[in-house]
Amino acid sequence: MDENNMMHYDCEPMDGSENSQGSDPMQNGAAGGPRKPERKGKITGKIVALLLVVAVLGSVGGSALTAAIAGIHRDKAAEDSAVTGTADEDTPEESQDQADYQLVSHSLPDTLPTNDTGKSLTESEVYALAVNSVVGITTEATTNVFGQQAVAASSGTGFILTEDGYIITNQHVVEGADTIKVTLYSGESYDAELVGGDASYDIAVLKIEAEGLQAVSVGDSDTLQVGEAVVAIGNPLGELTFTMTNGIISALNREINTDGNPQNMIQTNAAINSGNSGGPLFDMDGNVIGVTSAKYSGSTSTGTTIEGLGFAIPINEALRVAYDLVEYGYVKGAYLGISLRDLDSNTASYYSLPVGPRVESVTEGSCAETAGVQVGDIIIGFNGVDVESYNDLAGQLKKVNAGDTVEMVVYRSGEEVTLTVTLDEKPQTTETETETETETQQPEGNTQELPEGFGGMEDFFNYFYR
Length: 466
Description:
Pfam families: PDZ_2, Trypsin_2. One of its GO terms (molecular function) is serine-type endopeptidase activity. This is Trypsin-like peptidase domain-containing protein. The chain is of the alpha+beta class. The protein has a domain at about 5-40 and about 330-465: Pdz3 Domain. Helix content is about 15%, strand content about 35%. The chain has a 7-stranded antiparallel beta sheet. Strands 11-12-13-16-15-14 form a 6-stranded antiparallel β-barrel, surrounded by 4 helices. Strands 1, 17, 18 and 23 form a 4-stranded mixed beta sheet that branches. A hairpin with a 5-residue loop joins β15 (about 285-300) and β16. The relative contact order is 0.20.
């Protein structure tokens, strides 16, 4: 199911052709002075003249790490992780027979373990605590190439969320797979079932029938600071298994747009390569604080080398998605019930308006209508964050839940108006509906920008990340 479209987010961009008349931003009360300006599938390698390569990390390699919940002595964890062996070859086949395999689903726990040792661990201590909680993921999918069926194999990384076999990975690692296998650090292999996935968040949840697994400890991505040390463990190139790389948090809330899906990510300079997709990014307490997902590499047209640009999905967002997928089978995203058109800087300057998404229509009975949103409003703030584009708003909507009450600031008739909105739940759409909506509603000529300092490379990022 292709969910890589703008309509998946709770406010809809409008096609320029649909509003050729009556779309003057000066109508409907939008007037006044300007406001100061202020983030698949399997990896496919592509080479362009500019030599910009963006690797989606999940196409090759599985990974594994040991994790311990709070209170387990590190020396004991190191000792346990050192004792590894290959499981009896007959065991997986006997316990995982395809004909008898059935997914047994349970609710996720209300709370997850967190390591709080009171001091930062060394990198080797983090590795010892974590390496048994990371898994390798291999998939097979039947494809049709020039009328001939072929089996395409791919692999990536995941990590164990609960001791009874729930596993988080990237959606692009498992998307389209006919079969999914999970391999533990010990060498044991299990058939896995896809509990659910959402391409717009690039998060999927798998389930294997196992007990007594070592689950990861989970941190709080909302408390991260730029400069904090982090480590990633994965399988670069699909061959160098259980590799750990280190670095720092280079930036927070980087808006990365992939196939029309804006997402706020953690930026890190820890080496992330093909094979790391879906794997954990750890802080120095041994807690997972992100899910590695993508990177920039290569060089620009001027020959400038691009290095050290890796990205991870914040764990708080990943867990919210995972819990929804397990409980409901889909993500209960927040929904405003409006359609939007980005007001570009040139138009905004011409009419002395602030830059931001302009409301083109309001759905009857929606939370936006109830809150008093009007056609012609320019949205300039949402939940305490400045908004300058549809992507800004869509990215912020992914951070909140249906039922949350937030403040939204709009520019109307030369004034800033603060509205209180209790968010609706996003309606579920079928694949056919989504594809149709994308064709008719995608903004025409609507440009989007990467964060300051990225130059104009977003088109290339979108080109590779698919």
